[in-house]
Amino acid sequence: MKIIEIFETMEYSPAPENPALALDWLKEHKSKFGLFINGKWCKAKSGKVFSTDNPASGKKLASISEAGKSDVDSAVRAAKLAFPKWKALSGHERARYLYALARQLQKHSRLFAVLETMDNGKTIRETRDIDIPLVIRHFYHHSGWAQLLESEFPEHMAIGPIGQIIPWNFPLLMLSWKVAPALAAGNTVVLKPAEYTSLTALLFAEICSQVGLPPGVFNLVTGPGQTGSLMVNHSDLKKIAFTGSTDVGRLIREATADTDKKLTLELGGKSPFIIFEDADLDSAIEGLVDAIWFNQGQVCCAGSRLLVQESVAEKVIDRLKRRMAKLRVGDPLDKSMDMGAIIAPIQKERIQNLVDQGKKEGAAIWQWEGKLPQNAEKKGDGCYFPPTLFTNVSPASIIAQTEIFGPVLVSMTFRTTDEAVMLANNSAYGLAASVWSENINQALHVAPKLKAGVVWINCTNQFDASVGFGGYRESGYGREGGHEGMFEYLKPKESGISKNQFRISVAKVKASATTALSLDRTAKLYIGGKQARPDSGYSLNVVNADGSLAGEIGDGNRKDIRNAVEAAHKASGWQSSTPHLRAQILYFLAENLETRAVEFKNRITQLTGVTEKQAALEVKTAVSRIFTYAALADKHEGLIHQPPMRGLALALNEPIGVLGLVCPDEAPLLSMLSMLLPAIAMGNSVVLVPSRPFALVATDFYQVLETSDVPSGVVNIVTGDSAKLGTVLAKHDDVAGLWVAGTKTECTEACKLSTGNMKIIWTNNGKQLDWFDNQQSEGREWMRRASQVKNVWIPYGE
Ligand code: NDP
């Protein structure tokens, strides 16, 4: 094209990136790759291979080994053997390896970027300017955490060999998000990349060899979902870190339910992009382009639901269409493209089906009208999809609720701020949200109300190694990146053998005992701040250690749990109350419990049969524990991250919402309070199921709650068969989190049954805790358990 023509048409000329470097690398390997296990390359034992193609051309790039059971076993064995030595290195030694990896990645950044573009179909602009620089930043940042591990996390230690399963949308970036913190914390890794995109992980394994990373510290097993499933079910992997679809996340949670495996799940999303009428509309539209057409919309946190204030909706949609018309879709290796290829034909088909669904639902569609590239190899349609906009979308429609995972934006309007928040939260997901307003008060007023792990104010798709990323609700749990992300790869140091052996032999009622009860001593349930009769109308006997009848408790059922959950939701004001207020109420609670110390001591002695001295110690420790959480209520503060931008990210510790607590039998007062206190100190409201045989301790305790100004509905107590009630809580979709201290079977059931809304779950996995031991049973670890981190990004400057 002549220069004069360029001036006249303002058309872009092609600006292709040279693929020679990547093609040479493939040639060097004869386009064949094995597995990387224990520092060596090997073929899959089965001899099976699969191919990886360039989505932009359909052309095969390489053959890759498919790891089967014995390969996964070998990789896990290597990681297990390497773990003790790797963990025993000083933080400084591990930091040097991570630094070396960062440097090597930096030196080969162009090769990584080109290879990623060829394997994934995303534009070179993105791999070169976003993915790879962020990968490098992750290794630098986590080299720092390795160096500081002992001083910054003195109470924590590495977990062990870890299985990591990553998706195809950000192949090397997801590898770095997982591998860097895992190695920094002293764990070893077995990683499985997605079948579509293994190449950059294979190149990364070469770099591990080049820097002399000890064998077995990083192992790579390529293969399909089945390979991932073998890892999930491997008993020697102590944690699974997964990014991918919510459906597979659910399967993983169910498969690991009866194990000790730690789990972090980073799942799908349907993130709102909210434009208020006072926003800088041109900036917001540029943000929108980035939110939904970045990586062809194949982004878990894509701003795929546009919510725009009615007064500016027409203007926004108009300008947006004009901007969309100018987007450039084509060869991903062309440096001036905005959008590249969709990962695979099947994914393109899935997007098309959802778009057809949208049309059927009556939404208005507007699509980019440029010419999509053809598939050079197969002479058919290329694997491209046009930028697409739906207006007139109903909030309940399938396209407004389902993750499309493609370049498709659905838009809706709102009138008031409350309506915007309601629409934004009208999703099963909760990964990210973007808020656009020139009024910072307005934006900061809205941010805490959004159910999302990340909120971007006047910006979108910002990521950094120092800032945690992860979701609420069905978007999963756990955070990746930053200080908060390090905890996901650590566990509390063990405090040795439990000093306190609990006597939990439950006596049987003596045949003659019932007749001795002349007055009605049935303790009712406690729901919404009131004593309530159980729906069933039945009660259960509670027996003293000597076999005499102590009293009766209500036999709670599904309906009582439903009422309790409803009451807990009504107490949402507790979440927004000031930490100072919560602290004051907790101190008052301690005071009131102490006033009745003798009564509780007697009750515990009679019910459990422990000595008076032991029971007195339990009450005394309980009072001290209340003081601890009163103290922590206003001290479990967030952090201010300073990512490399003109701005900051506020990491806020937020309550989870309504928590279900199923309490154990041992030390019934202390164990119940050890679970209840961190939950309410953080601002959660709870539905508590006390120990079945010692439930009278809990029903005595609601009298203390009543006198301590704990607002109605913050603590609800439902007595009865704790295993059955635990099951109801696990299945309840309005319960956001569940803690179960029970038998192994109860814990497994709770994990399996609570995947409906992907509750955040903690169980003791059937192991007794020492509730008197402060290290195990009190403190910040519990506050972390009772909270989730929301990162609010705030850019500043003109
Ligand atoms: P998957 O969840 O299937 O894949 C994610 C990773 O898990 C891949 O490595 C995959 O292997 C592996 N995997 C698949 N099945 C199992 C299993 N049973 N046990 C263990 N590991 C398994 O996502 P898809 O690639 O199929 O994409 C489907 C949809 O998921 C997308 O349309 C999108 O909605 C969502 N998604 C969300 C992502 C996110 O970032 N949150 C990322 C990717 C997808 P393999 O690829 O080899 O099959």
UniProtKB/TrEMBL annotation:
Keyword Transport attached: no
GO molecular-function term, one example from the UniProt record: oxidoreductase activity, acting on the aldehyde or oxo group of donors, NAD or NADP as acceptor
Pfam family, one: Aldedh
Gene3D superfamilies hit by this protein: Aldehyde Dehydrogenase, Chain A, domain 1, Aldehyde Dehydrogenase, Chain A, domain 2
Active site location: 266
The keyword Oxidoreductase is annotated on this UniProt entry: yes
SUPFAM superfamilies: ALDH-like
Keyword vocabulary terms for this entry: Oxidoreductase
Top-rank taxon, per record: Bacteria
Domain Aldehyde dehydrogenase as annotated: residue spans: 41-493, 545-759
InterPro entries from the UniProt entry: Ald_DH/histidinol_DH, Ald_DH_C, Ald_DH_CS_GLU, Ald_DH_N, Aldehyde_DH, Aldehyde_DH_dom
Family per record: Belongs to the aldehyde dehydrogenase family.
Protein name: Aldehyde dehydrogenase
Organism of this sequence: SAR324 cluster bacterium
